[in-house]
Amino acid sequence: MIGIFDSGVGGLSVLKEVVKLLPNRNTCYVADTANCPYGTKAAGEVLRLSIHVVDFLLDKGCNIIIVACNTATSAAIDELRVRYPDVPFVGMEPAVKPAAQHSHTKRIGILATAGTVKGRLFNQTKERYAADVKVYAVVGAGLVELVEEGKAESEEVENLLRIYLQPMLEDGVDELVLGCTHYPFLQKAIEKITQGRMDIVNPTPAVAAQTKRLMEQKGLLSAVEGKVEYLFYSSGNVEGLRMMQEQHVPLVGAKYGQMP
Ligand code: DGL
Questions:
Q1: I want to staple 34 with a disulfide (CB 3.0 to 4.6 A). Which of 234, 235, 237, 250 is the partner?
Q2: Residue finishing a domain among 163, 180, 202
Q3: Rounded to the nearest whole angstrom, what is the distance from the C-alpha of residue 116 to the centroid of ligand 1?
Q4: Is the backbone peptide bond immediately before 260 cis, with ω within 30 degrees of 0?
Q5: Structural domain of residue 248, as residue ranges?
């Protein structure tokens, strides 16, 4: 069973790619909605919450876990790998490298949470792969909450995005990295504002590909014969998770529950 978690519905953007690339696999998704957002919390707190979710996923029988949250990857994945040495983990890599390579103007933008922008992972990646590029690292304050409320296509979202993206547009940024798994749900709104002037780099297909590679390596790739289980748990509003999942990742036979 593939375990996958996020602070909320954002990780569904990763699940969508995973079920596309790896159909007929049992999956268990956890949205830690009661503790969302992670992005404004201290790294130690995000680690504590991540451990709680991972224990729950392991209890459900998961044998590989995708940390479908940039903030939790940044705050927790190193420690999770040490704490659970037998469990393969896949994390969200900030896609700074491809953006820097593809930029013609040598100006790239990343939109992410405060936790990710401050984190070691992003800053190391930036130093390593974007040393010769101007990087706009902008915190998308308020965007996660609006996606959670089902307002991904609202005027409120557009107004915030305009504020965050305007300085990048004015300076000729031509590559925008989506550094939070909630943001692929804002793709339409972003495109409306950027009008083709930026490529939008969405790392979720690469994460699904990495999951497949790791499953192959670990001998976990065999598909389920018979009925596939798609489990969805939330520590908060299960109904909100179900609605978002049915809209973006419709799956036959999905089951829902509360995570304690
Ligand atoms: N979806 C998350 C991420 O990728 C977390 C957002 C949040 O809870 O602040 O960073």
A1: 235
A2: 202
A3: 9
A4: no
A5: 2-92+205-258
